[in-house]
Amino acid sequence: MLLLAAAFLVAFELLLYMVSPLISPKPLALPGAHVVVTGGSSGIGKCIAIECYKQGAFITLVARNEDKLLQAKKEIEKHSINDKQVVLCISVDVSQDYNQVENVIKQAQEKLGPVDMLVNCAGMSVAGKFEDLEVSTFERLMNLNYLGSVYPSRAVITTMKERRVGRIVFVSSQAGQLGLFGFTAYSSSKFALRGLAEALQMEVKPYNVYVTVAYPPDTDTPGFAEENKTKPLETRLISETTSICKPEQVAKQIVKDAIQGNFNSSVGSDGYMLSSLTCGMAPVTSITEGLQQVVTMGLFRTIALFYLGSFDSIIRRCMMQKARSETADKTA
Q1: SS3 content of the chain, % helix, strand, coil (to 5)
Q2: What's the pTM?
Q3: What beta strand segments (E) does 41-188 contain?
C-alpha cells in the first residue's frame, strides 16, 4: 500500500513538472534589457549589476555616493559582452523625496529606454537591543529599507503595466522572515517589504509584471561589516550558527529568480527551508512550488523548532554570563 502511494506521489509530481511551464511566467530576456539597481555601488547591488551586465543588459546604477558609483561603473564595464552596452550612474538618496526619485528614473529611461527590471537593493542594518536603539534609528531604517524601495517601484510601475512586461525585485533579508534578537529595527523594516511585495504582485500579475522578494543570509559585504560593529553578543552568536555567503553567489540566485519571475528567492538549504517554513499565503510561481511547500512544511517546522531552541539557549547563556559578571563586579 505504501509502495502504491509513493508511486502515485511520484507520478503526480512528474505531471506537475510537465504542466507547470504552462502557468509559469515567460522568462525575461536580459540581452538589451534596461536594469535599474538601487544601492548598486557596492555589495549585493553591485554584484547584481555585474551579473545582469554579463548577460547583455544595460545598467542604471543608483546610489548616494558619487565616487563609489564611478568606481562601481568601472568594475561593471569590465564584464561587457558587446560594445553597445552602457552603465549609467545616478547619485540620489532614494528614501528622501519621491519627486526627485521619479525625475531620475525618467532621465534614465530617456537615455536607456523603459525599465525592464528594477532591483531595490538600497538598504542598511543597525543592530542593538530595543531599549538601546534611538527612536530615530527606527525611522531611518524604515525610510531607507522600506520607502527607499517604494519610491523607485512607484516610479516604474505605470510604464511596466502599459508595456505588459517587467520585473521588480525587493531585496529583503532572512531577518525579514524571522525576527531575531537585536534586529527589532532592521527586521521590521525588512518584514514590511514582504507585505508590499505580496499586495503588489496581486495588482500587477494580470499585466505580466512579476515581483520577486529576495531573502539573502549574512553576506560578506561592506554593509555586513558595518552591522557587526553594533551587534550585541547574542546576535553575533546566533549569526555564527550559519556560514557567510559571497555576494556574487547571492546575486546570481537573485537574478536567476527574477528572470524566471519567482516570487521567493533564497540561497542555500537553510534559505530554502526558511522560505518554505514562512511561505504563509505568499504567491507561488507554479503548482510544483506550491506542492513542495505543502509537503515540506511539516518536516521543516520540526527542524525549525531545534533552530529556535538553539537560539534560546544562546540568549540564556549570554544572560547568565552577564548576571555572573555583574555579581562579581558588585562583590569585588
Answers
A1: 60, 10, 30
A2: 0.83
A3: 58-63, 87-91, 117-120, 166-171
- Give the residue among 275, 278, 274 at the shortest CA–CA distance from 262: 275
Q: How far apart are CA 214 and CA 210, in angstroms?
A: 13
**Tens-digit pLDDT profile for the chain (332 aa)?**
666 665 665 565 565 555 454 467 899 999 999 999 999 999 999 999 999 999 999 999 999 999 999 999 999 999 999 989 999 999 999 999 999 999 999 999 999 999 999 999 999 999 999 999 999 999 999 999 999 999 999 999 999 999 999 999 999 999 998 888 899 999 999 999 999 999 999 999 999 999 999 999 989 898 888 888 888 888 888 787 778 999 999 999 999 999 999 999 999 877 777 777 777 777 777 666 666 666 666 665 565 555 555 666 766 777 777 677 766 666 66
What is the rounded (10 degree) CA torsion for 50, 56, 57, 62?
Answer: 30
The catalytic site residues sit at 172, 186, 190
Please give the single-letter amino acid code of residue 89.
Answer: C
- 77, containing H or E segment: helix 66-77
Q: What CATH topology corresponds to 27-300?
A: Rossmann fold (3.40.50)
Q: Which three cell numbers stand for residue 198?
A: 505580496
The 3-state secondary structure of 223-283 reads HHHHHCCCCCHHHHHHHCCCCCECHHHHHHHHHHHHHHCCCEECCHHHHHHHHHHCCCCCC
Place of cell 521588480: 168
